[in-house]
Design goal:
Blueprint lengths: L26 E5 L14 E5 L2 H5 L2 E5 L5 E5 L3 E4 L9
Antiparallel strand pairs: 1-2, 1-5, 2-3, 3-4
Length: 90
């Protein structure tokens, strides 16, 4: 079962669509809301996104939060961003 810190209601509309998942390169999202997750998420911060089929089916997104661990959060808390390939090559 996927981990989540708090039960969240899923909604049909979201800021990050499941169709935006791209397995061949890292994805990132900017936090635009952090109600009830202030210790885990910083507003306007860029977070790495991990693909999570269960989360996508339930209106959630999996990000690596401030603890360094990955958790599910509501989609509407994030806006997906595209970065040039050179910006995330290691």
């Amino acid at each position: 079962m996927a981990s989540a810190r708090k039960n969240s209601s899923s909604r049909k509309s979201s800021s990050v669509a499941a169709s935006e998942v791209a397995a061949d390169h890292p994805r990132f999202a900017i936090c635009v809301r952090n109600k009830d997750y202030e210790a885990s998420l910083e507003l306007r911060k860029l977070y790495p996104v991990l693909e999570d089929e269960f989360g996508a089916q339930h209106g959630m997104i999996r990000v690596i939060d401030e603890s360094g661990e990955d958790y599910l959060f509501p989609n509407e808390y994030f806006v997906a961003v595209s970065l040039p390939q050179a910006s995330h090559e290691g």
